[in-house]
Design goal:
The protein has a domain at 198-362. The chain is built from 18 helices and no strands. The protein has helices spanning 4-18, 23-36, 41-52, 56-59, 63-77, 83-94, 105-119, 130-147, 154-164, 173-186, 192-209, 220-236, 240-245, 263-291, 294-300, 304-331, 355-364, 383-395. The model is unreliable at 358-418 (pLDDT under 50).
């Protein structure tokens, strides 16, 4: 026998199918359960994920009007959700045509504002609130594709400068790198004004993690992130580096400050560059010698577990070598008094997929199966066949809706910041 919950789903879903005059009236109460925290909210979210979202092409008609309608419902519902739930709703919004490639810049900014609200950028940063740190990092990663389309990264970057940098030393080590990775990844999309505000903080952190002389080792991941960020920000506003690093870059603007003596800054910065380069070259040499032994170790390994561990160590060493190479490539030009900053895709960060691998995937990889969006040939049938097919898809497996309702709930419970760990 079907439970009352399943009966509710059947009733609402039937209303979705009988015509465009009625299905919006059915969606609204469903989202109300999500927004208000009903006891069946998890089952409803599963229902939306499995039964409603895949049929958007058939259901959202007229398209622009109905996409706006469901967008407004989702914006109200995501005010209090877990990380995986927020990812689900944002993924659906990004699939709508009103937020597609041809959408105006204002549409992308609307998406960013939804993410900004979830990141809680109006709150005071609390270094002991790990959930907030994880949520901020996750939201930054989620925002990156939208920054690429022209949405402003200003609020995120300003929050980093004003709230996070002053407390950076107190942040747990495992979160520092994640924070620096998000800033590095977003730096190509920073506006000139934001770059000017962020550069002093980046230089401050660079001086902390770049030694003034050769040392045994450095935190190469931090340095790689910071140098990459430095280049992309400085490319937008090069003369800002005159007072920070002692460069002599002429733009004809008063902000060049060419009449002031910043020679000590230049000496200090270039000494740190040299110390970093010497340290990285020595570490790179040691790593190269060690990497030569990996193939022998794999051949002599007696168990699959041993082979797996050795291969994992080999991959880690390969990424480390990429990081070393990136650091040396980025420090080289910075010794000049008028350096050229990298502002293109010349450098691929070590933890990102390397270009040649991506090209090989596109050229020779198997074609992935398209997601169910209602545009496949099987759906382009007559009206009667369409309705029958929709009904079948609506009720198929309905008894399973809600099973595993804890999936995506993170570390338990709904609420601000809950369930964000590991999301990114």
């Amino acid at each position: 026998m079907n439970s009352p919950f399943q009966f509710i789903f059947r009733c609402h879903w039937f209303l979705l199918l009988i015509g465009t005059l009625y299905w919006p009236d059915s969606l609204q109460p469903l989202f109300k359960h999500v927004e208000q925290g009903s006891e069946i909210r998890e089952k409803i979210i599963c229902f939306l994920r499995d039964k409603v979202f895949p049929l958007k092409a058939e259901l959202l008609k007229p398209q622009a009007e109905m996409e706006r309608f469901i967008t407004d419902l989702i914006k109200k519902s995501v005010q209090d959700v877990t990380g995986s739930e927020f990812e689900l709703f944002m993924g659906f919004l990004r699939s709508l045509s009103i937020f597609g490639d041809s959408a105006p810049r204002e549409s992308f900014q609307e998406l960013i504002e939804i993410i900004q609200a979830q990141a809680d950028l109006n709150s005071q940063f609390n270094v002991s609130d790990i959930d907030h740190i994880e949520r901020w990092i996750s939201c930054m990663y989620m925002a990156l594709p939208i920054f690429m389309r022209g949405a402003s990264a200003s609020k995120f970057l300003n929050y980093f400068v004003k709230q996070i940098v002053p407390a950076f030393e107190k942040i747990p080590e495992e979160k520092k790198l994640d924070l620096l990775k998000t800033i590095a990844s977003s730096s190509p999309y920073a506006a000139a004004q934001d770059s000017r505000q962020l550069l002093p903080s980046v230089v401050q952190l660079l001086k902390k993690y770049m030694p003034g002389k050769k040392v045994e080792d450095i935190n190469h991941n931090y340095v790689e992130c910071l140098l990459y960020t430095f280049h992309h920000l400085a490319h937008k506003t090069p003369n800002t580096t005159n007072s920070l690093c002692g460069y002599k870059i002429v733009t004809g603007q008063p902000s060049d400050r060419l009449g002031e003596d910043f020679s000590e800054h230049y000496k200090d910065f270039t000494e740190r560059l040299t110390g970093t380069e010497e340290t990285v070259r020595a570490a790179s040499k040691r790593l190269t010698q060690g990497m030569a032994d990996f193939n022998k170790a794999i051949s002599s390994a007696k168990t699959d577990e041993e082979k797996t561990k050795i291969k994992g160590d080999q991959q880690t060493s390969t990424r480390t070598m990429r990081s070393y190479n990136n650091i040396l490539a980025m420090t080289q030009s910075l010794h000049s008094k008028s350096p050229l900053f990298i502002g293109d895709k010349k450098i691929t960060l070590s933890w990102m997929e390397q270009p040649n691998k991506a090209a090989a995937t596109k050229a020779g990889g198997k074609r992935s199966q398209p997601s169910t969006n209602g545009n496949d040939p099987a759906n382009k049938k007559g009206r009667g066949g369409m309705q029958n097919q929709l009904v079948n898809r609506a009720f198929e497996g309905l008894s399973h809706v809600g099973r595993g309702s804890g999936r995506g709930r993170g570390r338990g419970g709904r609420g601000r910041g809950r369930g964000w760990s590991g999301y990114h």
